[in-house]
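tool_call: predict_structure(chain=1)
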Amino acid sequence: MSESDKQEQQSQMGHITKGMSELLIADLFNKHGISDEQRRRLTAEQKQEIIDLVQDLQRQVDQYMQKSQVEQQVQVVPRTPPSPAKTRAPGPISSPAPTMNRVEGAGAPKRKRRMVLRKDK
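tool_result:
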């Protein structure tokens, strides 16, 4: 994005922000029954304080937006795959563990256990 595009975008955002703030303030005054005659006028110092506050807030928002754009541009570095497992050196082949052979008729056959899920109250 060129510098002129950024400035144009900022001026558009400033225009939108100004319009939104004026609308919200007018709505707030109407909600509380405050007319133009009842509003007190601000002094030059008060106006300057508000301007400084808004500029400071705008600067903070710009910094946050730049920070979030940088974070989005950073790509996650993929992990390196684990190294291949070392193969065992050839050695004596062991036989599987001995099993118990069932003698027919000796005892009742074992039942399969079922897992029961309970909902906690």
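agent: The helical segments are 3-31, 44-73. Proceeding to next step.
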